[in-house]
Write a structure and sequence with these properties.
elongated, 28% strand, 24% helix, five-stranded mixed beta sheet, alpha+beta, single chain, 6 helices, Peptidase_A31, hydrolase, Rossmann fold
Length: 253
């Protein structure tokens, strides 16, 4: 996934800003995020060998700010010619045309473009409210259609292990599927330990730390569980209604 645009020009930076939000959420194995900025030729070469490419950029068509356009690959066959282009005038469509010319067979066939209609592109401004709302909508679409299918799915039998030194350990599949950003809020409620996924470290909370090359994670919970005799393996379950992992603290085995 490639976010294009100028971070210094308000809504024109929606592509790179979106990519940074996706990074905070956690990137599954098999996906790659690229901040393409305004370097169109670099964007073209980033496509080399990819199976699927998604480009996110701002648009200025005169439509209602925040309007989202999803341009599928079959509509990208007839792109503008490359003659007479200057590097500063490279747009997303020029990047695709250049990639097809420069990469030949290494250029992916499956390319989709999301365009978000800009409201303001003045220097030094933040994203406008309609563009911010549209960006969140596109993030949900990207998670549903592209990133979500790449995330592992835990089995029905979920468990975690509490250690003598106050840590809780989660296996790699559970961590990657439910806590892809590695940032969590943790609390004890009704004799259960609750872990609630956060969107990223900037949201606060606690960080799940990688403890081995397999991707298993650990979390220091000594202050939360206090003197409760929790050492051992505990069954856990995912609470869909609360969007939280719940670990009953009295069920060690």
């Amino acid at each position: 996934m490639v976010g294009c645009g100028n971070l210094l020009r308000g809504d024109d930076g929606v592509g790179p800003v979106l990519v940074r939000h996706l990074w905070d959420r956690g990137v599954p194995t098999g996906a790659r995020l690229v901040d393409g900025g305004t370097a169109g030729m670099d964007v073209a070469f980033q496509m080399r060998g990819a199976e699927r490419v998604v480009i996110i950029d701002a648009s200025a068509t005169g439509a209602e700010p925040g309007t989202v356009y999803r341009v599928p690959g079959e509509e990208l066959a007839d792109l503008p010619p490359l003659q007479g282009l200057h590097t500063h005038s490279f747009r997303w469509d020029h990047a695709i045309a250049f990639a097809r010319w420069a990469l030949a067979d290494a250029c992916p066939n499956d390319i989709t473009v999301f365009l978000i209609e800009a409201a303001a592109v003045e220097f030094g401004t933040d994203l406008s409210e309609p563009v911010q709302a549209a960006m969140d909508q596109v993030i949900d679409l990207l998670e549903r259609d592209y990133l979500g299918p790449l995330r592992p799915t835990p089995g029905d039998d979920i468990s975690v292990r509490f250690t003598d030194d106050g840590y809780m350990r989660l296996d790699a599949v559970l961590a990657a599927s439910r806590f892809p950003s590695d940032a969590v809020a943790a609390m004890v409620r009704e004799d259960d330990l609750w872990l609630i996924p956060l969107r990223g470290p900037r949201s606060g909370g606690l960080l799940l730390k990688q403890r081995n090359p397999a991707g298993d994670r650990s979390l220091l919970v000594r202050e939360l569980v206090g003197d409760l005799p929790v050492t051992g393996v505990h069954p856990a379950f995912w609470d869909d209604a609360q969007q939280a992992l719940r670990i009953p603290l009295g069920l060690a085995r």
